[in-house]
Amino acid sequence: MRIAFLTGAGMSAESGVPTFRDALTGLWSNYDAERLATPDAFRRDPALCWGWYRWRAALVRRAAPNAGHLGIAEFARRGHAVSVVTQNVDDLHERAGSEDVVHLHGSLFASRCLDCGEAMTPDPILDRLDAIDEGTRKTPPPCPRCDGPFRPGVVWFGEALPEDAWDRGCAAVAGCELLVVVGTSGLVQPAASLPLLARERGARVVEINPVDSAVSAIAHERLRMPAAAGIPALLATLD
Ligand SMILES: [Zn+2]
């Protein structure tokens, strides 16, 4: 079966990855998420912004995929054609073994030059990440090509989604027979429009979420449980 998974913050929260606002502690406790996650914030204080995203990347590196991430990869191992479309900026789907992963909101591990878009290998955001205890300010490295500052690879408030990711996400959702929506509020556009797109194209829509969301009303079926329980449960019903 062609299965697409649309995953949001609830998926990663079960691995202990703090949500966007939960992450604002310590050095960053006096800042609003909205004030750190904008192009203006980066221009104003690149070291603060880069340091914050390095801290978030360090937290992600210490987290492990949960039974939900592993279950999604298992669907593919059992012969289903699986696409993962995620709003999350961590790499837990990849580390669980999923191969076709679209990051609608970018990735913590895809930094690039603010000015020319150049990337570096290894990604400079990884530099001594293991040694970070609470996070500190850090000046982002200069681009080897144009000397511009490196920026985190995530989509900031006020920025458009990466066009390629959006196109791939839409194609995966429009072409699936089953869309499983996991741990997302269904409120953040344009990602929130994807469940409706799947339904219009004739796919079955299943929601896995412990609480009601904006997706619930258009889902054919709702599993009121967290991802780590819901995905293995769904896997069992498809066998
Ligand atoms: Zn550059």
How are the elements arranged and paired?
Blueprint: E1 2-7, H1 9-13, H2 33-36, H3 39-44, H4 46-62, H5 67-77, E2 81-86, H6 92-96, E3 101-103, E4 112-113, E5 150-151, H7 163-174, E6 178-182, H8 194-200, E7 204-208, E8 221-223, H9 227-238
Parallel strand pairs: 1-2, 1-6, 2-3, 6-7, 7-8
Antiparallel strand pairs: 4-5
Helix pairs in contact: 5-9, 7-8
The site of zinc ion has 8 residues, from loops.
The small-molecule ligands in this entry are: zinc ion
Count helical runs: 9
Helix content: 25-40%
Q: Determine the N-to-C terminus distance.
A: 11 Å
Strand content: 5-15%
Class computed from helices, strands and strand pairing: alpha/beta
Order of neighbouring strands in the sheet with most strands: 3-2-1-6-7-8
Mean of all residue-level pLDDT scores = 92
Number of strands: 8
Q: What's the order of the H and E elements? A: EHHHHHEHEEEHEHEEH
Low-confidence stretches: none
Q: What would the principal axes of the Cα set say about the shape?
A: globular
Q: Radius of gyration from the CA trace? A: 18 Å
Query: How is the biggest beta sheet arranged?
Result: 6 strands, parallel
